[in-house]
Structure formats: structure tokens, C-alpha cells
Amino acid sequence: xxxxxxxxxxxxxxxxxxxxDPPSDRVVIDVHMHAGxxxxxxxxxxxxxxxxxxxxxxxxxxxxxxxxxxxxSGPIEFVEHWKRGAAERFVASPMFPCDGGVAPLGGRxxxxxxxxxxxxxxxxxxxxxxxFGAMGEITTQYxxxxxxxxxxxxxxxxxxxxxxxxxxxxxxxxxxxxxxxCPKFRAALGRPLLLEEVxxxxxxxxxxxxxxxxxxVEEMLAMMLLYPQLYVDVSAINYGMPRPxxxxxxxxxxxxxxxKRILFGSDSFPMRDCIDSIESADFLSEEQKADILCGNAARxxxxxxxVCKRARS
Length: 313
Known about the structure:
Layout: E1 28-34, H1 49-64, E2 67-73, H2 76-85, E3 90-92, H3 120-129, E4 135-138, H4 153-162, E5 166-169, H5 177-180, H6 196-201, E6 207-210, H7 217-226, E7 230-233, H8 237-240, H9 243-255, E8 262-263, H10 271-279, H11 286-300
Parallel strand pairs: 1-2, 2-3, 4-5, 5-6, 6-7, 7-8
């Protein structure tokens, strides 16, 4: 597994699984990707060759796997560089709070001012200009905060006002995270129930729980059943869990009638493997696979349904 600065849920060592053949007509929207050099070394300029080469590699991987659109977050210099280079393929999104002003697991400043959170006026201007189209990954857990912490209220209010979708990190992360990078990280701060006060205060907020709250499936189910506006993405658990374990988790969501609120995400892990985790689920119908890989995200992001129709042969 390559070292990446992604915020992931790794529950067990990834098992070797058989790969499905690439889908011939399935379009994908990835709601959880990170922009930056492949090794996120924290060195070099925003447009350095390492970053640009990696961006081109990611676009090639997106093309090979029919990934039409991706929401990207990370240090803002990388996010905006990727967006400028392929505006039609990426939805730019700020990642915060950044404990100490740097991206979790990254080593780059999140914002030009090296601040923990973005300036609200600056952020509003980015949405007004169309530079940004989403908010998150909200990384409160890495900063030792609940996602319902009062410091986030102005940002949730802004997102609700502007109807901007918000992705919040839930669940776990790399084994040893509190020792390696983020001493304030706590497993308990990834519990899905912590999103409840956010949803109570902001009933019109478009929000999705990244990593689907894994491994807290019971809490995730309770929240989704009670709050119909809450979505999840299956990033990282679709790669970090052994395939049978992930399928069991996914099936729990489907068994409760939540198939229309499950979004696909790769968290910058190999797209083919993450897509295969859905394609290989024999309990999913073709319609359900298409929904998870594209249709649900198109509806959640208020895109034209045509985005999920394969345009090229």
C-alpha cells in the first residue's frame, strides 16, 4: 500500500481479492478524493512537477475507470491547481480544521494564512465565484474535536445558506494515528451519533458521513433512518476492509432500504479496486450498482441525470 495523505478507515489488513472486469458502460462519480503530490512530502511549489505528474496520472486513472467527476480536498494550493488544470473533472473543496495549520497526514499548509480554519469571507468568495463547490473533508476528529463543536457552526451555517454539500470524516483512520501524526485523534470522535446536533441545528444541510461511519454500523443506521437528509460515502472501507467484511457492512445499509443514499468514494486509493468492491457485490442489482457508483451522487450534488450516461464508446 502506497503512503498517501488520505483520511481513511483501516480496520484490518487488506486481503487479496479477485478483480472484476472493468465495467463497459458504468459511469462513476467519486465524492472523496485528495489533491496533492503522490507522496505529499511537503516540499516544492504548488505547480511543481511531482504534483503535476500526479494530477495527470489521476486523470488518466479516472479515464480508464469511467470516473467522470471527483470532489477533491487537501491543501488549498494543490486543490486549486488541480481545479485550474481540469475544471470540468474536479469539484474543489476545502479541508479543515487543520490542527497546527497543516493538513492531517500531509505536511502542507491548508490555507495561505496557515490558519486552522479558512476565513469565512474568503470562503464565501470562493463559493460565489464557483471556485469551490463543496465543503470538506471536515477533519474535526484529527484535531480532537467533535463534528458538532461550536467552532464549526459558522461553516455549517454558510454551507446551509449556500446549499453547499458537506463531507464529514467519521469512523477510524490508519492504525496508530494518534502516535504517528495526530496526537489529538480519538476513535470516539468518529462516532456517527455526534452528527446529530449538527443535523438538528441545520435541517437543510446537505451532509454525507465519509467512510460511512465504519465500524460503527449500528450508529450509522440509526442516524440515517432518523435523518433522511443524511448520506454516506463508502470510501476507505471499500478498500481497507477485507472484501467480505465490506460487503457485510454494505448489505446492512441496503437491508434497511438506504441504497439511494450511498455514495462512492476512493479516498485516493486505487480506483479500480474501489469500484470492484461495488461491482463484485452479488447481492446488488444492476440498478443499485449504478446508483452507488453514480446516480446517487448525481442527485445529491444536484447534477443533471445525463452525467451518469456513458458518452463515449
